[in-house]
Amino acid sequence: MAKPFLRQLLEEQTAALSGQTFLTFGDRSYSYAETDRQSNRFAQVLLEMGVRSFDRVAFLLPNCPEFIFGWIATIKLNLTLIPLNTQLKGEALAYIIRHSAPHLLITDRHLLPEVQAVAGALPNDCRLLVLDMQENSHRVYSFDKMFAAAPPQRPLDVPIGEEDPALIIYTSGTTGHPKGVVIGRRAQTNHPLYYHKEMLQTAPGEVAYCYLPLFHVTAQGTTMGSLLGGSQVALDTGFKVFGFWERLRRNRAVVFPYLGAVLQMLYTRPETPGDAENPVRRAFGAAAPAEIWASFERRFNLKLVETYGQSEWMAIWVMQPPGATRIGAAGKAPERAEVKIVDESGRELPPGRLGQIIMRPKEPGLMMSGYYRQPELNARVFNDGWYYTGDAGELDGEGYLYFRGRLKDYIRRRGENISAFEIEQVVNGHPAVMESAAVGVPSELSEEEVKLCVVLKPEAEVGEEALWEFCNQHLPRFMVPRYIQILPELPRTATQRVRKFMLATGGVDSAWDRKTAKRTAEYQAEKNT
User: Fold this and answer.
1) Comparing C-alpha atoms, which of 317, 190, 189, 300 is closest to residue 254?
2) For 476-504, how does the pLDDT look when each residue is reduced to its tens digit (9 = 90+)?
3) Whole-structure pTM value
4) 447 vs 482: CA distance, rounded Å
5) DSSP string, 380-399
6) Does residue 2 have a pLDDT over 60?
7) Which residue from 150, 238, 335, 523 lies 20 to 30 Å from 470 (Cα-Cα)?
8) Burial (0-12, 13-18, 19+ Cβ within 10 Å), 444
9) Phi, psi of 128, rounded to the nearest 5 degrees
10) What is the 3-state secondary structure (H, E, C) of 239-271?
11) Residues paired with 406 in a beta bridge
């Protein structure tokens, strides 16, 4: 008997838990039954707009209940959802619109100007459906008017296939143009099942707090995983370091996801006597700073569950095994997948050797079917069933995986391959540094020089030369940066990943230059003598 798809699982949960709360957003709560009714009404609106099975529908929406209702509606109608990063604008937004060619784009009144600014990228037959807008205009329709008139009846079931495209998720674009990750129906179903069982581990009625944007796979796994587990999700509009723990207490949340610098920002807030008095049992995510890991757990009385994965993996993320946490490691490969480290020729490397991380699922429907409209790239990243991640890492003798950064983040300097990740790990240990990013910039001697960008902790004071001295003391000579730039913040995607290409292409004109500083010091010394 074939395993059920997500649509059937959602129907079963709605029938079993109709009166229980599923979603809270601000001061509004939605039961399982009301969520189902609202998604039915949303589906009726989509049908009224003329979309049919396999059509592509793009969402450029902030976190809001309508996003979830519409997402479920696309599942019911077998539509392909394209969740867009709400920080996109200009050519970055136009590129994805041109590449994905949606039949319908749904946004809200506040983001509509960004879409209209790139209207030339929209397909000729693409129409806009806009939330919080009352009047229709050419190709632009009021969602509110149509939703108010839509009946709550469930739409007729349409046939669904395992590889029917459920989602096209565009990568963050930290190293170049975003890629469209195509997720089939079977992978879309396995994703929240995996999240509920292994990431969230929430009991019926318990609450997961989600501040990450719903266009991101972690937020999607948290939300839909909660639904399939019979639990609740408290949805927020974004990450706010001030009042973060108060919101968790108010929502009685027992788990939350983390990404990027979130843990560091929470940790640098002044300690209070009530830090440990919160309902959270566990937080899961990636890139937990090793230097604060244990003290973060003690201070906030919770367990950090480190993971490693990509949007492409969907339901095969590496994570720390229960009761066997190894600080600094991402964890071990799950039973349903294999993970190896290979060299540039694809040969497997022994434990302790740095190379590219590759993985292979042991059953179908656990990861992407490929990149949208990029057959040449698909041919490069798939080989004999193995997916080549483009990430650098190593395995130890017990099978723990250590993530060492993107291969494209490696800097080539005077014949040496330098890991930006390793530089950053050392620099982040400086007592004045909140976070850092190392990038390669062109060198007059060919290859590259190292440029280090640093964000200081609040109230901290340290100069570029002192930071260079710290690097010179703690890093191999070939890793010590030539250029250092102190910034108020690092440019980020909405999922808190650093846009390193912006730091690299920003040049070095405004950066402190060790070579220039050394020459100036030598000149002054000579002049004084």
Assistant:
1) 300
2) 888 899 999 999 999 987 566 788 888 98
3) 0.84
4) 14
5) HHEETTEEEEEEEEEE-TTS
6) no
7) 523
8) exposed
9) -110, 135
10) CCCCCHHHHHHHHCEEEEEECCCHHHHHHCCCC
11) 391
The mean pLDDT value for 10-22 works out to 96
Only one residue has tokens 């592509």, namely 56
Q: Is 372 helix (H, G, I), strand (E, B) or coil?
A: coil
Model pLDDT, residue 219: 96
What average pLDDT does the segment 278-293 reach? Answer: 92
As a whole number, the mean pLDDT across the chain is 92
Residue 174 has a pLDDT of 52
Calpha distance 517→521 (Å, rounded) = 6
Q: How far is CA 415 from CA 168, 280, 448, 484, in A?
A: 39, 48, 10, 22
Q: Which residues have C-beta within 8 Å of that of residue 26, sequence separation ≥ 6? A: none
Cβ atoms of 212 and 220 closer than 8 Å = no
pLDDT tens for 375-407 read 999 999 999 999 999 999 999 999 999 998 888
Radius of gyration of the chain (CA): 24
Pairing of strands 355-361, 386-395: antiparallel
Contact assessment for residue 189 and residue 365, using Cβ atoms and an 8 Å cutoff? yes
**Residue 1 has what pLDDT?**
37
- Residue pair 94/177 in contact (Cβ under 8 Å)? The answer is no
Q: What is the structure's pLDDT at 264?
A: 85
Distance from C-alpha of 340 to C-alpha of 399, rounded to nearest angstrom: 9
Contact 212, 219 (CB under 8 A): yes
